[in-house]
Amino acid sequence: MTSVELHNPEKSLAETLTATAQSIDSEHITLRELFERIGEQGLLVFCMFLTVPFLLPVSIPGVSTVFGLLITLIGAGVALNRVPWLPARLMRTRIATAHLLPAMHKAARLFGRLDKLVRPRVLVLTHGATVNRLNGFILVLCALLLMVPIGLIPFSNTLPALAILLLAAGMLQRDGWFVLAGYATMIATAAYFAALFGAALMAGHGLQSLISTVIFFV
């Protein structure tokens, strides 16, 4: 089985995304075509790009579930050390370049900042089959959190997307500090979601108690 290639340092992240944006000259592009144009750095750069609509003020309508599912499958591929299965129907999803290109240019600027910070260090968190399986599993958890249907609540998409970006950048460039930051952001995201769930339960119990009281007096 073909394994997942995580690292290709020949191009910076910003250069890869800028070159991809410049190669697009049609009104629409499918996710498969976008993935193929991103090139040899492939899966993790693609994964990082899929977080952009949730991190920057750009609009790519209707992508939360689709992008989250693709990140889940990529994370599973990393965890299993094999090229992930990407459903043909999902990869045929068409995106208008009028929405896509502004997102790609903003993402290139973001990736340019990352390029200045990310570098090989704390390699114990980026090397070895066991570590890759753990990182892939955490990536899957973050993607599942991204897909939770509470997008209107502040930070509910931003936090898991940031965790995915940090993890993917750390794995791609062998930067253990970025991977560790991804772990921390995932834990913060889980705690935030748990707090939201707890608040919703308390609100539900309060509303039920109020309704019961009103009915009693009526």
Approximately how much beta-strand content do the residues carry? under 5%
Major β-sheet strand ordering? 1-2
* Main structural class: mainly alpha
Instruction: Report the total helices.
Output: 10
Specify Rg, calculated over alpha carbons: 19 Å
Overall geometry comes to: globular
Q: Which spans have pLDDT < 50 for at least 5 consecutive residues?
A: 1-8
Order of helices and strands: HEHHHHHEHHHH
Mean pLDDT: 80
How is the main sheet built? 2 strands, antiparallel
What can be said about this structure in brief?
The chain is an all-alpha fold and 218 residues long.
Keywords:
218 residues; mainly alpha; two-stranded antiparallel ribbon
Description:
- The chain has helices at 13-22, 31-38, 42-50, 52-55, 64-80, 88-91, 97-117, 129-146, 158-173, 176-217; strands at residues 28-30, 94-96.
- The chain has 218 residues and is an all-alpha fold.
- It has one domain (13-192).
- It has a two-stranded antiparallel ribbon with strand order 1-2.
- α8 (129-146) packs antiparallel against α9.
- It is globular and about 50 Å long.
- The chain starts with 12 loop residues before the first helix and ends with a helix.
- The relative contact order is 0.14.
How is the topology of this model organized?
Elements: H1 13-22, E1 28-30, H2 31-38, H3 42-50, H4 52-55, H5 64-80, H6 88-91, E2 94-96, H7 97-117, H8 129-146, H9 158-173, H10 176-217
Antiparallel strand pairs: 1-2
Helix pairs in contact: 1-7, 2-3, 3-5, 3-9, 5-8, 8-9, 8-10, 9-10
